[in-house]
Structure formats: structure tokens, C-alpha cells
Design brief:
The complex is a heterodimer of chains A (about 675) and B (about 400).
Chain A: H1 2-7, H2 14-18, H3 42-50, E1 56-57, E2 79-80, E3 85-91, H4 95-105, E4 129-132, H5 141-150, E5 167-170, H6 172-176, H7 179-188, E6 192-195, E7 197-202, E8 208-212, H8 217-221, H9 228-231, E9 256-260, H10 261-273, E10 278-281, E11 284-290, E12 306-314, E13 332-345, H11 352-357, E14 362-378, E15 385-391, E16 394-401, E17 419-427, H12 429-437, H13 440-451, H14 474-501, H15 503-506, E18 514-517, E19 522-531, E20 535-536, E21 539-541, E22 547-548, H16 556-576, H17 586-615, H18 625-658, H19 660-671
Parallel strand pairs in A: 3-4, 3-13, 4-10, 7-15, 13-21
Antiparallel strand pairs in A: 1-2, 5-9, 6-9, 7-8, 11-12, 12-13, 14-17, 14-18, 14-19, 15-16, 16-17, 19-22, 20-21
Helix pairs in contact in A: 4-10, 4-16, 14-18, 16-17
Chain B: H1 2-21, H2 51-59, H3 89-97, H4 109-128, H5 135-139, E1 156-160, H6 166-173, E2 178-183, H7 186-210, E3 223-227, H8 231-240, E4 252-254, E5 270-276, H9 285-294, E6 296-307, H10 311-324, H11 341-351, E7 367-377, E8 386-389, E9 396-403
Parallel strand pairs in B: 1-2, 1-5, 2-3, 5-6
Antiparallel strand pairs in B: 3-4, 6-9, 7-8, 7-9
Helix pairs in contact in B: 1-11, 4-6, 8-9, 9-11
The chains are: A alpha+beta (about 675), B alpha/beta (about 400).
GO molecular function, one term (chain B): methyltransferase activity
Organism (chain B): Discostella pseudostelligera
InterPro entries (chain B): SAM-dependent_MTases_sf, UbiG_MeTrfase
Amino acid sequence: MARAMSVASIRLEVASRTSPHHHVHNISSNVAASSLLFGMSNRQQQSMTTNNVCRCYLSTAATATAATTTHHRSFSSPSIKQHQHYDIIIAGGGAVGSVLARLLLDDNFGSTGYIKNTGTTRRRRPLRLALVEARISPPTLKDLIAKNNSQTTQSSSSSSSPPDPRAYALSPTSLSYLGSNILQSLGQHNRVGKYDNMQIWEHDGPAQLHFVGEDLCKAIQDGRLVDLNALVGRSLDESCNGNGNSKTAKQRPWLGAVIEDAPLVSSLWDELRRDTRIDLVDNVQLTSIDTPSPQEVGNVIPPPPVQLSFTRRRSNKKNGKEGSDNVIQEDEETTCTITSNLLVAADGANSFVRRTVGNFPMTTHSYGRKAVTCTVQLEYGMKQTAYQRFLPHGPIALLPVRNGNVDEHGGEGGECSPKYANVVWSTTPTEANYLMSLSPSEFLSTLNHHLRQGPNINPSILPNNNNMIPFNIPLISTLAHEVDSLLRTANSAITMGTWTESPSRNYFRLPPKSIKVVSPIMGFDLGMSHVSEYTSPRVALVGDAAHTMHPMAGQGLNLGFDDVSSLAKLIKEAIDAGMDVGGTSLFLDRYNQERLMKGWGIVGGVHGLHELFECSSSSGSDLHGIMKDVSSGDGTSVRGLRNLIGYSRSLGMNVVNGLPMLRQTLAEVAAGATPPFVK
Amino acid sequence: MTKVLRAHHCHHLLQRGCGLIASPSSLSSSSSFCIRRRSPPSFTSTSGHSSSIRQAAAGTGNHAHDGSSGSTTNSDSTGHVKSSSNISPHEVDKFSSFASSWWNARSNPLVGMNPIRVKFITDTVEVFQMNAPPASLRLSNATTSSLFHLPLQNKRILDIACGGGLLTESLSRLGASLVVGIDASSRVVEVAEMHSFHENSRLVLQQQQQQQSIYSDGTSRNIRYIGGSTVEELAAQWLSKRGKDKITPTVSSSTNHQSADDDDREHELFDIITALEVIEHVPNPTSLLQAATSLLKPNGILFVSTINRTIKSYGLAIIAAEYILGKVPVGTHDWNQFRCPEEVERMVCDIGGSSGGSGGNGDCPRMKQIALSGMVIDPPFVNLNWSLDALDVDVNWIGAYQKQSSTS
């Protein structure tokens, strides 16, 4: 939904932005004698007197009626007033923005008391929030499910329409930010794709890496990671205490879950709609943002609030029920200005707020890769396992969706209900376009061919053709073969070792066969971007507005949720300290520092991972550009180097798999647990 | 749990150890390290050269901003207030020169320190003043009720050495019915007034527009600043006018619109008094603490924070912070003026007038230490991210002292 906002035409009030606020800097003046309006900018005074009430109607639950009926907007809904002031305005009501609102409204989230037994929650002034969203507010979760069910035009076996490929793999920590209510209601409607196994393996190497839920036991028991089973009202069974390999384990720790975008946002909005402390303003088009200049922060005179102007179109026509792209009739268009202590930009990768406020230089990098994504129906369930295989041009992931209703035996209940998975396939643009041009059956056979292959147990690092060995001298050739056989032996030994350590864990699981493509096959370009500053006076960026990355580690939204949690904690801290969160640079500076460290760590780490796997793509259909250019010069040595890197990576993967400590640490990092050395 | 126990244990050791090292009477001239052990006073090494400036400053009683230095009053209630000009002009000038950048978080470390100071204050008040909301309020939904209960609801607070009003404004936003900010420098008080005036005008405007008050945070409408005056003077006036007429502070300019003056006389005393980061900047900290105590209601809480006099504090607060990192201007602190928690506890303990218990480690009849915590930068010097750490009072620390009700 953030993207929709950015597409909207931009009408900047340049004049008001560039003109500095007119303040009287006269410290020694007789303050008591001054007028009350002293210090307010002229602009503010004018607008205050002219347009006092702005009929910007809020989005209420009443607007989201059942999908079968037309989309009525209630005209009796409450309106916000011109120049209404909020503590926080969140721009963008997608997953990231809604979770921020939820965390801010959650009294149990945030800073705890210094003296531990002061009580369960701290007393604090209720926050006043506004959430502005470019799209029309999402339907309630119930309506969404009802709509899904009614729209079923597929085969009779499916009880509801297939999952949307727009879905996120969320870590346990990210899932905990949703709260137990949302997790439970999503679970009740079978919209959670839990996984407690993860299998990663290679195209042409012996390496495979298995993460299991039990890798997180220690973090959960140490209190460094939230226990999601407890959050959804189940108890963590003996899988953490006794033998972790027990196949009857019912509730193993979650490695994560795949949740579709639509039900996620709907359930979040459901919760927000119930809260009177937040105004949800949908269908808006931001026109201007007026923020204090950096010089105004830290002065004797506190920086003026951020001012956000937007227009809101209202229509009582049906909204796209027939899907007939009808232009929304502009019955009336209202302009509104609201102010706030802090504006949070959660409006996506193409953030309007970031571009309008400016001063957010970004580092961007295009991978020259494209991801193809779709939803497939499977022959049988995925047994709560996420699969990822590294192919020469990028990883291919098969992620479980809607695998709820897990029965007592670990299987997925309801034999008749269809099993779905989300496919994310990163590859070269050429191959991606080729994949998208295939017929569904051809696509499926390609997919199954690439996914349903085990690791290559004992490959050689040497090219098949002896002529390609660099410096074709007998001695070097012999040496190379010796090294090769040595490495192969080592790698095989480690592989064997991990098998004997825990055979039930480490056996290779063949992913289930995909039998049907049940969604459009979509493609999007892959890139990396990261801002060099997360904040500007009274503005903070969260989520995709600040960073995008390669999807192969599934960390994009998780990092966004981490931003949000960090910001929510600081806002709560400011409230508890009786301070204005944007009034000094203190809190935003801390946010900026925290996020720059974490953000570059994750974005850079994923980038490095991508480069590592890129490097190893072996010979054959060499489609990607960089390597081709290089190898055209001195192909043999480059290829040999590439093979060697691939081999050491493969060895590394096996070593990680064989070392429980290292594996656990990696799993904990991916799950978002606090590292043990942090207090 | 074990941590807590250990902290308690240590704390007892600390109390006794300190009592052996330094007696309050010798504090003003002693420059020994605060040692955590029960050790003989051989550690009282002398480094008198740096304390000479302070002593010279202490001797001169004339102060540029001080309008009423002549009012030497012997308060009958405490009997210990000797002079009302407990001001070091050098210190006042120093802080006056910081005035314009007082609210700049990047140059003033006190901004970063403010959240944890407030946290310590609100948490201590919550526990020791039984500030629980009425049962009826607790049952109703506090988010929709216009009577939501804030941590410092209806407290009368005196903020000694309020500076630019960082803490003063925070406390006023957290529900206090009145916060009086007093500072020896009239220049920093002007900054404080300016800042809270703008906060206030904005808030009033917002409230007028919104025609609702349930979300108002009461910014600065309940603040009163007194510049160029000392707490001793305030105490003298406050106490002498008890029973006569209303309070008219020396340099008072109020930004309040409520009539806070019509409180009855009992309410002229304070529930909470804060003297944060000040006792290391005045010539006679005991006098300041005495005056503060005399203004406190029974069960009222006095909060004191300063820097410990340890080798670590010399390294961090003086050498590192002033000379190496430049986080605070050079000359901000005089290490010899630092106090360890035990010294301050002894000071407030002896204020009560019953000096009988000063020799032993007995009870303090009037003022009792109820909470103590260190304030540490975590991680050190990467960012000024302060946190409370009960076990590390080696450098910055904050303590809470409750005035015992008269029955005990």
C-alpha cells in the first residue's frame, strides 16, 4: 500500500517548506507579558483562523462491510479537525506501519520499571496517534476470509481461494510483535504457515544445512527469545527438554511462519479499529510535509511540530468490486493539515515522506536479478518445513503457507484440504522472463526438476575438462588433483559425521511435488538499498522506506519489524520520561545509531551472502553478466577460482551443520533472539 | 534474585565503610577517595591544590545574580541554615555560559541522562509514596477516562538547580500539580522559562483547537521558575511565611494559569524535592540538603544525584569526559567536590537534628535512604545511552531519601 501512495501525484507546497519558521529569539524578553501566540509560525496562525474544521472522515470499522455487499462509506463517521495535533503520525498503514501502531498502543510493550515490583504496566499518558494510508482501509479479517471463501471458483476440493503470493516469512521475534490476539485469530482462520524445520542445500555441492526448532530451545529457556507456543496458548512440550529428535513432538519451537500480506494487515487493522486512541485515515494523498530544520533542534525554543497536509478523496461509488478499473468518482476532495511531534515514514520502498523531506541519501545496488513468485498446490503437506536450494543463478525457496490445523501427530490435518506453498525463485532476468512465459505445466515441471534433487554428494572442484586447469603443467595438475581429492575426502567425512551425529535430523528431505500453479506468476527486480540516515528532525524512517534487500534470507520485513520495535521502545521511553520525542535530538539520534548498526549488519550480511553464492555459480549455462565478462578474458583461472570458492562455501555449510553451537547461534540470529553476551 | 541479595549485602558494607572513612564535618575539606572497604583513614591522601579554587569561591559570598543575599535567617525548624548565599559565582557563571545550548542533546549530556533520572524518580515515588490511583479509577478503562492517573499525579515538586528546565518540564508533564524550578543562575532560568513558555503556548493552542483535554499532557502550565536564588533563601522565605501570607519568591515569573497560590499552608511544602547534579557545584552541600529537607512534607522524598569520588570517576568523569572525549566542557567538575553515596546519606541523616546517631550506623530519625542506583553509560561513550545500574555507583549515582513522619 505504500507503493500506491507514492504513485499519487505530488503537489508540494515548496514555499512553506523552504521558508524558515519565524521565531523571535529573544531570551531575555519578558516572557510572561508576551502573547500566547508568540512563537507560532505565521502560517500556523493564518490557517488556524481560516479553516478551523476539516471534514476528513476517518476510516472506521463500519466502512469495511462484508465483501459481498457494496463498499459503503459511512458519512456519519467521525472527522478529524484541521490542525489536530498528535503525538505520532504514521504514514503508511501496511504491515510495518500497523505493527508500529499496535506496539505503541500496547501498554505492556516498552520500557519497564527500574524497580521490578512496581506493577505490571507503567502508568503513562495515553498516546494520541494517527495512521494515514493511501489505500482504502483493508477489510476486516472476517470479511476477507468470507470473501476468499465465496470467491472459490477453483476445484471443488478447496474450501477457500488459494493463498496470495504476497506473503512474508516472519521470524519468531517478528511474530511476537503481532501479539497473541492477532496470532490466534490468524491461526483460527488457518492463515499461518508455521515452520519448525528448514532445509538448505546446494545445486552442485554436497552441503546441506538443517535448522530445526530445537536449535532455539536454549534461547527460549534463557529468556532471550519469546516462546511463541506460549503466545498462541500452547505449551512448549518436552521437545526442548528431552530428546529433541522425538518425532511425536507436537509443539516444537517455531523457526518462523509465512503469513500472507492481506490477512496480516487486516488483522492488524482490526485491532487498531477497536482502539479509540488512534485515528485511522485512509484513502489519502499526501501533499506536503513541513518539518523543522536541523538548526531548530536543540535550541532554547523547541522545534515546531511536523506538519502534514493531505487531500482525501471520498466516493460513495463501488470500489472496484467488479474489478473494472473504474476511476473513483471524486465526489468531494478535502484538504487537511495535521501536526505531530513525530512523523514516522512507513510508506514503503518508494517512500513519499523520505523523498519529500529529503536529506536521506541512499546506497543502492541492483543485483541484476529478478525474483519469480507464485503459489503452488502441493501433492502432500510440507511437514512444517521450509526449503531453500541454491541454484547457479540464485536460490529457490519453497515456503509453507496455511499449514494450520496441525493434528496431534505432526501431520497436517484434513486430508481433503489442499496443501499450498509459496515459491520464491531468484534468478537472472532472462531466465525469470523465460519462466514467466512458460505454461503452468511447463513451469511446474521446471520447478519440480530444480527443487526435487538432493545435494551432490561428492563433486570435484576441478573442471571436467583437464584442459581447463590453469597452467597445464604436469606437476601442478597432479597437485591440483591431490588437493581436490583431499578436500573431497574432508567434505565427505564431515557430511558423514553430521549424519552419524543425528541421523534423523540430517537426512535429506525431498520437497513435496508441486502439482498446480494456483496464482499468477509474478516477477520483480531485486536490489539492495539502505539509507545513510534514518532520521531527520521530527521524522523517522522504518521498514522498506529505509532499506530493501535481497529476499533470499527472508529478512526484509523482519528488519522492518525490528526498526519498529526499536522506535516504539524509544517513544515509550520518551513518554515515560515526560519528554517530547522529537523535541530534542536525543531519541532520534539513538534510533538512528541503533538502526544504522543493525541495518547495515543485516543488509550487508545478506548482500555478502548473495555475493558468496553468486561467486560459486559453476560453469554451464553462464548467463550472468559479470562473470561472463571476466571469464571471457581468462576463463580457466576464473572458473577454477570460482569452483574453489564454491567448494569452501560448501565445506563451510557442512561445518556449520556439524557444529551445534554455531548452528544454534545462526538460528538464533535469524530468529531475532538477543545474543547471549548482551545484558 | 541473587543479584539483589548481593546488592543489599554490599550496600550494608558500603554504609559502614563510609562511616569510618569520613565524618560529615570533615567532608568539605576532605579530598579522599571514596573507598568501598572498611579501611582505616590512611586513604585520605591530600590533593589540596584543586580544592583551593572552590574554597576561595566559597569564602566570597557576593554573587552577581543574588538579589537578596542579606537575608540571613536562622530557621527555627531546622536550626542549621547558616547562610543563604550558598553559591559559588564561578560555578554560576560557568553554567550561565552553557545556557543557550542547554536543550541541545548533542552538547549537553544531561539531556541523555534525563530519562533515567525521571525513571528512578517515578519508580521510587510509585513504591514509597503509595501513589496508586483510586480503586474506582483502576477499574475503569484508563485510556478512555479523562481522569487517567499519571506517575506523579498531584505531587508538589521542587527542582533545585533546575538549569534549563529539562527535569522540571518532564516532571510537570508526568502529572505534578506544581513544579517549582529554582536555580542560582538567572540566565539558565530564562532559558527554562523560554522553553516551557513555547511548549505551553503550543499546547494551549492545540487544546483550544481540539476542545478536549483528555490527551493534554499539562505541559508547563504548572511550572514556576525562580532564578538567581538559592534553596536556602527559598526555605527561609517559605518557612517564615508559613502562617502569614502567600509566597512571593524573589525573582518570580510564573507561566502558570492555574491559581496554584490558593493551596492551604500545609501544601506549601513539597512531596518531592530533587537536587540532581548540584551538590558538587555548591560550597556547602550540607546547607543545601538541610534547606531542602526543611521544605519537605513528612514522607516526602528528596532525590540527590552526584558523582562518586573514586579513581574510576576521576578517570571517566574528569579525564575522559572533559579532556579526551569533550562530552562536557573542561572545568565542569571538580573531583574533590564529588561525594560518595555514604557521605550524602550521612549528611541527610544528620540533618534531622538528632545528632545522637551520627557516630554509629544507627537509624536516621528524620531522613532515611530508601533507594540508590548508579547511572552508567552503556555502552561506554559510543552513544550517550544512559541506564540505571544498582550495582555500579562508582561514577554517577542517584539516591532517594525519605523524610520520616514525625511520629518515629
